[in-house]
């Protein structure tokens, strides 16, 4: 510094040069985890394959040369890895955001190949990747392997049957494979929420936004023409996606592209990216120009065959029009504006394809509220059960959809998860997780299913009790199921019980009184006070659960008119057995002695306790779960404390005195 001090002019020049150089590289580096490129002239991207930066400053991933019949691959990555996760043991996944402007130019418009992909990969070098449908990302032997750790958003312009592409103009999300987890036809939504198709290979400049929320695990992907510079309010793709297992601590971000038999030029004109923040805005006025290839006309070769070709085209157009009209009739739906406010909505087209047109072969069963079909979602391969309900005029459609959307937010291991819904006319389609072992009632009453062991029965009852406790106490509102019975308990592959069919469920705020509503449910499981009050209460659910307890333990439905008069009502019969000191005589005879005596006695007595006519005499689900888990004792309940009396409505009423919830908690 002493030497510089002797020459102040030279010192000034050095400082100015240093500032200019620092300013020159600000657009590329920004704040460590964010950067922006308004054109790529002078950038330091890592380029491989056919990728170059043109003299005008555009990033060209592939060119239009057809010298190689096997096609080209091109890669462009930011030169340094970025941190996408906190180091072990935290491993928290960061959010990220990107926006870029691109253009795909083909020698023959609407006929090019094969597209490009925004890519996050563990390395900027992908030496084994091949061209064609593999997008320059993978090859046949590596496609689909979890060890790839590759995330990509593809902009695909070729329909590849081998990778299950839906069409030749779509946007898809790829996880370790070029077979997309979910796709949507290229389009954007206007301010009026109208879906406008976009031709990816039109040669025009298009803008894309990709935003991932590492906290909620949700990804939003939006595209729009450059003539629509503001981001549309509604994204093209908005899906739940957990990238935590895929993303490593440090990853490279960039673009990959490929061509094969038909060639296209894939251009990126501007690009910005950020970790844990919004991607910096692009200065659209500074974006570089790119050459638009003129279409080569081959009309002269066809002139001698004009008449024949014309006739062929007219016939082909007529056939295609008929097929398109028929397809439109199959898939058509009118989406009203209010429906866009409720999440988890599936397109009718996807559910129609999933159930193979709701064909009879996929029918799982029919009930009073609709038919249920097995389906496989084409976007992700998930097995689902699709319930088709005709709502009619019993309830406002908007109110019904609001309740269904609320159910989509319920999360518990003993509830069948509602994946989403769809409305078409007066029909509502409800999409649930598929339960491979069907319903509990078939195992109790279908001789072909074989005998259901006691330990499995007890595990199922404890699981359903846990699910009901979550509905009554554990969610943001009180949820009253109103139709608890064995046929609404579904079993997964491990024979875990999951409560299903929330079509009659009612919601109300904690601490408030439920409103009077129409009486619904199944005879034998309905609490007697419903005929007087019409109010859906948690106590009514407890009554239904009591009927389920007795049904599972006894292997009999709540009412059986084939039995003798004293055994018609299962609850009366079990109470009679309890009074005579032989309560275990009520256990399902098919079990023989293959059951745990203490557990069976507990289930039978608890079934009676829950089945009392007086709502205030029944336990709540907190107490029920305590009993089943062995955290509270039923020693205080003796048959002598059971008193029969008639209420003003003429019902026989069981009045059981039971400890308060404080006493239950203290005895656990």
UniProtKB/TrEMBL annotation:
<comment type="similarity">
    <text>In the N-terminal section; belongs to the leguminous lectin family.</text>
</comment>
<dbReference type="InterPro" id="IPR000719">
    <property type="entry name" value="Prot_kinase_dom"/>
</dbReference>
<dbReference type="InterPro" id="IPR050528">
    <property type="entry name" value="L-type_Lectin-RKs"/>
</dbReference>
<dbReference type="GO" id="GO:0005886">
    <property type="term" value="C:plasma membrane"/>
</dbReference>
<keyword id="KW-0732">Signal</keyword>
<dbReference type="InterPro" id="IPR017441">
    <property type="entry name" value="Protein_kinase_ATP_BS"/>
</dbReference>
<protein>
    <recommendedName>
        <fullName>non-specific serine/threonine protein kinase</fullName>
        <ecNumber>2.7.11.1</ecNumber>
    </recommendedName>
</protein>
<dbReference type="InterPro" id="IPR013320">
    <property type="entry name" value="ConA-like_dom_sf"/>
</dbReference>
<comment type="similarity">
    <text>In the C-terminal section; belongs to the protein kinase superfamily. Ser/Thr protein kinase family.</text>
</comment>
<keyword id="KW-0547">Nucleotide-binding</keyword>
<feature type="transmembrane region" description="Helical">
    <location>
        <begin position="7"/>
        <end position="26"/>
    </location>
</feature>
<dbReference type="InterPro" id="IPR001220">
    <property type="entry name" value="Legume_lectin_dom"/>
</dbReference>
<dbReference type="InterPro" id="IPR011009">
    <property type="entry name" value="Kinase-like_dom_sf"/>
</dbReference>
<keyword id="KW-1003">Cell membrane</keyword>
<keyword id="KW-1133">Transmembrane helix</keyword>
<dbReference type="GO" id="GO:0005524">
    <property type="term" value="F:ATP binding"/>
</dbReference>
<keyword id="KW-0418">Kinase</keyword>
<dbReference type="GO" id="GO:0030246">
    <property type="term" value="F:carbohydrate binding"/>
</dbReference>
<keyword id="KW-0808">Transferase</keyword>
<keyword id="KW-0067">ATP-binding</keyword>
<keyword id="KW-0723">Serine/threonine-protein kinase</keyword>
<keyword id="KW-0675">Receptor</keyword>
<dbReference type="Pfam" id="PF00069">
    <property type="entry name" value="Pkinase"/>
</dbReference>
<keyword id="KW-0430">Lectin</keyword>
<dbReference type="InterPro" id="IPR008271">
    <property type="entry name" value="Ser/Thr_kinase_AS"/>
</dbReference>
<keyword id="KW-0812">Transmembrane</keyword>
<dbReference type="Pfam" id="PF00139">
    <property type="entry name" value="Lectin_legB"/>
</dbReference>
<dbReference type="GO" id="GO:0004674">
    <property type="term" value="F:protein serine/threonine kinase activity"/>
</dbReference>
<feature type="transmembrane region" description="Helical">
    <location>
        <begin position="302"/>
        <end position="325"/>
    </location>
</feature>
<feature type="binding site">
    <location>
        <position position="388"/>
    </location>
    <ligand>
        <name>ATP</name>
    </ligand>
</feature>
<keyword id="KW-0472">Membrane</keyword>
<feature type="domain" description="Protein kinase">
    <location>
        <begin position="358"/>
        <end position="637"/>
    </location>
</feature>
């Amino acid at each position: 510094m002493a030497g510089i001090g002797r020459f102040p002019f030279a010192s000034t020049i050095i400082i100015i040069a240093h500032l200019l150089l620092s300013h020159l590289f600000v657009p590329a580096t920004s704040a460590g985890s964010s950067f922006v490129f308004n054109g790529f002239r002078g950038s330091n991207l890592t380029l491989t394959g056919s990728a170059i930066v043109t003299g005008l400053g555009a990033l060209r991933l592939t060119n239009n040369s057809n010298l190689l019949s096997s096609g080209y691959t091109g890669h462009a990555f930011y030169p340094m890895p970025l941190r996408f996760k906190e180091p072990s043991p935290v491993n928290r996944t960061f959010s990220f955001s990107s926006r870029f402007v691109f253009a795909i130019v083909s020698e023959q418009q609407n006929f090019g190949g094969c597209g490009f992909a925004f890519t996050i990969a563990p390395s900027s070098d992908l030496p084994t990747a091949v061209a064609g449908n593999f997008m320059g990302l993978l090859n046949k032997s590596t496609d689909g392997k979890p060890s790839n750790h590759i995330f990509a958003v593809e902009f695909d312009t070729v329909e590849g049957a081998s990778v299950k592409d839906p069409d030749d103009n779509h946007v898809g999300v790829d996880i370790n494979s070029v077979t997309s987890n979910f796709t949507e036809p290229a389009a954007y939504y206007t301010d009026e929420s109208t879906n406008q198709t976009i031709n990816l290979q039109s040669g025009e400049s298009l803008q894309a936004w990709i935003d991932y929320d590492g906290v909620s695990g949700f990804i939003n992907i939006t595209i729009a023409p450059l003539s629509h510079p503001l981001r549309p309010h509604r994204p093209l793709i908005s899906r739940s996606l957990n990238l935590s297992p895929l993303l490593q601590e440090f990853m490279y971000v960039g673009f990959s592209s490929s061509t094969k038999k038909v060639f296209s030029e894939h251009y990126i004109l501007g690009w910005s990216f950020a970790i844990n923040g919004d991607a910096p805005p692009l200065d659209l006025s500074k974006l570089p120009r790119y050459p638009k290839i003129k279409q080569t006309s081959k009309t002269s070769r066809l002139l001698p065959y004009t008449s024949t070709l014309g006739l062929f085209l007219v016939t082909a157009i007529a056939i295609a029009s008929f097929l398109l009209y028929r397809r439109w009739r199959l898939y058509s739906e009118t989406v009203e504006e209010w429906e866009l406010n409720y999440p988890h909505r599936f397109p009718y087209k996807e559910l129609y394809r999933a159930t193979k047109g709701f064909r009879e072969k996929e029918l799982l069963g029919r009930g009073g509220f609709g038919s249920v079909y097995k389906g496989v979602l084409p976007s992700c391969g998930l097995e689902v059960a699709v319930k088709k309900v005709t709502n009619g005029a019993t309830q406002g459609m908007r109110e019904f959809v609001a309740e269904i959307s609320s159910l989509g937010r319920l999360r518990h291991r003993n509830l069948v998860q509602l994946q989403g819904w769809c409305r078409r006319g007066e029909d509502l389609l409800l999409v649930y997780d598929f339960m491979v072992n069907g319903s509990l009632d078939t195992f109790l009453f279908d001789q072909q299913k074989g005998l259901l062991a006691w330990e499995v029965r007890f595990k199922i009852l404890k699981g359903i009790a846990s699910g009901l406790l979550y509905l009554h106490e554990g969610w943001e509102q009180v949820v009253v199921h109103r139709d608890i019975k064995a046929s609404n308990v579904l079993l997964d592959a491990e024979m875990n019980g999951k409560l299903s069919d929330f079509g009659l469920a009612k919601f109300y705020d904690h601490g408030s009184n439920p409103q009077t509503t129409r009486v619904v449910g199944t005879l034998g499981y309905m609490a007697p006070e419903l005929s007087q009050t019409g109010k859906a209460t948690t106590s009514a659910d407890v009554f239904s659960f009591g009927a389920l307890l007795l049904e599972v333990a006894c292997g009999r439905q709540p009412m059986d008119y084939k039995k003798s008069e004293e055994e018609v009502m299962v609850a009366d019969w079990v109470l009679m057995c309890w009074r005579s000191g032989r309560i275990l005589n009520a256990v399902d005879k098919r079990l023989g002695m293959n059951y745990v005596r203490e557990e069976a006695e507990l289930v039978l007595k608890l079934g009676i306790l829950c089945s009392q006519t007086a709502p205030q005499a029944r336990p709540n689900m907190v107490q029920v779960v305590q009993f089943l888990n062995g955290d509270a004792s039923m020693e205080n309940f003796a048959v002598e404390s059971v008193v029969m009396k008639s209420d003003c409505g003429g019902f026989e009423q069981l009045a059981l005195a039971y400890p308060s919830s404080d006493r239950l908690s203290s005895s656990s």
